[in-house]
Prior knowledge:
Elements: E1 10-13, E2 16-19, H1 30-34, E3 37-47, E4 52-56, H2 58-71, H3 80-94, E5 100-108, E6 120-128, E7 141-149, H4 166-178, E8 183-187, E9 193-196, E10 199-205, E11 208-211, H5 222-233, E12 237-240, H6 245-248, E13 254-258, E14 262-269, E15 272-273, H7 279-289, E16 307-309
Parallel strand pairs: 7-8, 7-14, 11-12
Antiparallel strand pairs: 1-2, 1-6, 3-4, 3-5, 4-16, 5-6, 8-9, 9-10, 10-11, 10-13, 13-14, 14-15
Amino acid sequence: MAKYSVENRLIWLNGEIVHVNDARINVLSPTSQFGLNVFEGIPCFWNEEKRELYAFRLNDHYVRLMRSARLLHINCSYSINEISRALKDVIKANEYQEDLSVRQTLFVEGFGSWASKEPTGMFVAPIPKKMTSLEYNKIGLNCCTSSWRRINDVSLSPRIKCGANYINSRMAQLEALRNGYDTAILMNEFGKIAEGPGSCFFLIRDNKLVTPLITDSVLESITRDTVIQIAKEMGICVEERTIERTELYMCDGAFLCGSSMGITPIYSIDKCGINGDSDIIKEIHKKYFSIKYFSIVRGTGEHREWLTVVNSKY
Ligand SMILES: Cc1ncc(COP(=O)(O)O)c(C=O)c1O
């Protein structure tokens, strides 16, 4: 059992570990007023047998964080070593022994405007996986196609992970919930399939795994890349190509995936049933995530290089 409940947890803020209620920022700061921040949700997986907690593809998350900051001209004064030390310190302080999603956010503080580049701050906040959003903890999903279009690279780039991008995700997710669905699938400005509000989309057709191109208005997702790599290693044919809406209703299986969501099969789209029993999806899921068997994220499968132990002494 974690020593600290979510309301009582400890947060790393600008170099110090503080109680969540004492972690304060300026209400007039650009991050508070304009969503001027970039962030990562870093998944960590608990291995009960070894009593180790593994951050999955930690360095790749930090590379994306730095790229997001660079695109938005947010100055980051921390090195990757320092921010990874911060993550380890806050996990150690909270004594978590369970699956986590760790929010690591670089934000613009002070009294500036939406055009300010500094001063910057950072916080690191671990969230137990089961306390993340409902749609991230479901076994299967009933989805709708959203009436909202995914943001695009000539207005607000979906390629990076910044707080403001989630307003578009919010619109789609709230519309889906209002209409009785678990989540949504957004199309891009051209009416082609893009992604979920917080996840990437894959479908199965003729035993091939198909996912939208990285230039079809999607986040440069680490799970997307992981699934593509694992599938290829399993001998599954992977196509990265534009997907049309009608393919959603004719596919042989589909799933959403992301660091928070893991790999979650889709049961239906716009109330049209989808075969939730696809062997390809089951095999990929088992290899990536399975709790009982051989599993990459728990350190009992291949790709140990993707794991960083974050609860050991250093
Ligand atoms: C819009 C969107 N697409 C895809 C993803 C999945 O990205 P990743 O696999 O890097 O978590 C996320 C995750 O937050 C997201 O917000």
